[in-house]
Amino acid sequence: MDRVRSVFEEMIENPLTLIGVIVVVSFILLALFTPLLFPAQGQDAYQMPRDWQNAEEPPLSEGHLLGTTQTGGDVLYGIAWGSRLSIGLSIAVVTVTAFIGTIVGGVAGFVGGWVDDLLMRVVDALIAIPPLIFALAFVVAVGPAYQNIAIALMVMMWGSYARIIRGEVIHVKNNEYVDAARVAGVSELSLFVRDVLPNAIPPIFVQSTLYFGRVVLIAASLAFIGLAQPGITEWGVMISNGQSDLVAGRWWTSVFPGIAIFLWAFGWNMIGDGLRDVLDPRALSE
């Protein structure tokens, strides 16, 4: 815990990283307290409510801080409930892909030989296919749904983690203290779990911070072209629904969800840069 606290304190000394932390924490708090701040309207809280009497209200209207859509849906309500979808998706995808990639890449780098060759060829095949293209084909095949977007991204995005951790494990396992532990009779499994993997894993945290933003960008892109359930409070869907409003001058229905996507990706990128500078000072000096 002391090491984690030390890393965090060094990170927030960078003003840009501190801004990123504030932005990300703000979105997480918004997602957590959305049911209290914006009680569900209708049976499905994740469907944009309809209030025809208050349709097309501009920002700062009474009761509608960010305005309303053509169907009277409150834009702030959509962004708040959409944050739960986007943040939940990014946490699920990053957690699953980081776990799979760490195990596969770690085993490949530590065992070596034909196991390494086999697993890395699978990784090469995965990385050769852009996640956006695979997710597009997968969702079209199984049906438009936000859950299917998550599954497609989990299948495709662990390859980068595996490649990163493999290189780190190969570097760490050749250190003298690992050889000394092996001579002392420590089992290979214990060496891998206790000595090699913990010292090879820091780059995974940096990669994860970058993926938190990227996952939301890809999901929003797929939702924008209609591969999520229609009418849900997802940021990409809200931008897509607001396209025609831009021509009519009702910019708020698509601009505010776009700002939410930008801020979420920007915040994680700033955190990722700060974490990389702390964990790898050589990159900063170069």
Question: What's a quick, concise take on this entry?
Answer:
It contains 14 helices and no strands. The protein has helices at residues 2-11, 15-37, 75-111, 113-128, 131-142, 146-156, 159-173, 176-183, 188-200, 202-224, 235-241, 243-247, 252-279, 281-285.
Helix-strand pattern: HHHHHHHHHHHHHH
Q: Which shape, going by the Cα principal axes?
A: elongated
Poorly predicted sequence stretches spanning 5 or more consecutive residues: none
Q: Biggest sheet: strands, sense, closure?
A: none
Using the CA coordinates, give the radius of gyration.
22 Å
Tally of helical segments: 14
Strand content: under 5%
Structural class: mainly alpha
The mean pLDDT is 88
Instruction: Give the CA-CA distance, first to last residue.
Output: 29 Å
Describe the structure.
By secondary structure, the chain is mostly helical. 74% of the residues lie in helices and 0% in strands. It has 14 helices and no strands. It has helices at residues 2-11, 15-37, 75-111, 113-128, 131-142, 146-156, 159-173, 176-183, 188-200, 202-224, 235-241, 243-247, 252-279, 281-285. The chain is elongated. It starts with a helix and ends with a helix.
